[in-house]
Amino acid sequence: MALAVSVFMGETLPSEPSHYAVGSVVYLIVFNTIIAFTVQNIAQKYVPDTRTSLILSTESIFGFLFSALLLGERMKVRGVVGSVLIFGAVLFSKIDWKNVWKKRKTVGERSHTVLEK
């Protein structure tokens, strides 16, 4: 995509890519795509769906932590608030609300019947 945009914008492409650029692309293909997705797909067979989605939703948290620790990046308040809202929305979407309300109802019925006796 970036290549298409740069060509569209009139940028000239290098006639011969550097060894560093080729090595970086090979590293990204092998480790970030092939190995990571293979391990992820194998692990998902053994972990429940809800737990898997919660684990995968922490990607942005770890991305920020490692960028702060390794690269010294700083996040502004607006970024922190946005991150908290997004992560909270992911957690909120994974709650099984039918079971939550069912449990509250049964707890309320039990306490009510105890009070009547």
What's this model, at a glance?
The chain has 117 residues and is an all-alpha fold. Helix content is 79%, strand content 0%. The longest helix has 26 residues, at 19-44.
3D structure, described in words:
By secondary structure, this protein is mostly helical. It has two domains: 1-46; 50-117, no CATH class. Helix content is 79%, strand content 0%. The chain has helices spanning 2-8, 19-44, 49-57, 59-71, 77-94, 97-116. α3 (49-57) packs antiparallel against α5.
Task: Summarize the topology.
Layout lengths: L1 H7 L10 H26 L4 H9 L1 H13 L5 H18 L2 H20 L1
Helix pairs in contact: 3-5
Q: Find the structural class using helix and strand composition.
A: mainly alpha
Low-pLDDT ranges? 112-117
Give the CA-CA distance, first to last residue: 70 Å
What portion of residues belong to β-strands? Answer: under 5%
Overall geometry comes to: elongated
What's the gyration radius in Å? 24 Å
Largest beta-sheet details: none
Work out the helicity level: over 70%
Give a count of the beta strands, DSSP E runs of length 2 or more. Answer: 0
Structural key phrases:
mainly alpha; 2 domains; 0% strand; elongated; disordered C terminus
